[in-house]
Amino acid sequence: MMRHKGFTLIELLVVIAIIAILAAILFPVFAQAREKARQTECLSNVKQVVLGVYGYVQDYDETFPMFGYRSVRGNIQCAFTFLSAIDPYIKDKKDKGLFSCPSLRDAMDMGSYWNPADPNNGECGQFRSFSYVPNPSVIVAGPTPGNIQLVQRAESPIKMAELQFAAETTVIADGHLMQAGGTCNPAYILFTAQNAAPTGVFSVAIEGRHQETVSVGYADGHAKSIKAKSVACTGTNMNGKSLTARWCVQQAPYNRVCGQQQQRICASAPTATPGSPDLWGIVDEDQFGKCVRSSR
Prior knowledge:
The protein is globular. About 3% of the residues have low confidence. The protein is an alpha+beta fold. The N and C termini lie far apart (95 Å). The protein contains three helices and 15 strands. The strands form six sheets. Strands 5, 6, 7, 8 and 9 form a five-stranded antiparallel β-sheet that branches. Strands 1-2 form a two-stranded antiparallel ribbon. A two-stranded antiparallel ribbon has the order 3-4. α1 crosses α2. It has one domain.
């Protein structure tokens, strides 16, 4: 009668150890592959959104949409934002669709910000979740009266003719609309016309969601990923969500303001980190090369 020899305890432990080692090696690879797939989807979303902006510009006398203004839906006051303005060109009424990054679909809630008591009617197009922020020098607050700025700053909508380098001027990117405050230095503030800073609505913060890259859409309709460096500090987005890092793009032209030879400082503590935390500005050129300036 034949006897079957089983595995010894040592052999089983060796097999288990080999499986554990393989898992430790492969799981990070699988995670990176999943994030790469999300990055590809996110970049596709950004491409579709920026093409929607481009379609709007073509139909409205080469004029970019405003960030938002007060309006009425039925008999309910609401905020008509850039999301509603470009929706006819991408037809994305579903929640968590093209306006949402797959790596962070609930980054912000537009509806609950404008109407906490009735979030579904806060934004005129009933948009809720979104993950991308506009360049506030291209999609500006708009003229008064009627705009929904939080401080007094009024600008007429930007024309495409004002962009000398449209292929290098950003329109939207991965990021958050930020409240004032936090531990980042320089701090997040609500900018005013008097201090010649980017926007009168929110402070904008980009975010390197995809293996330290930011998905960015440009004024000519193309999109690409750019590298960003993180600095540990805290801030709060428009809906009260805490962020634990500021992300800095260090490549030209967004790393320098026109008329200044030195680079922008993205964060000054714990050590000075050059770069742009917001991809703010319209690309121009001065005696030192490509740079960014305010809208006007």
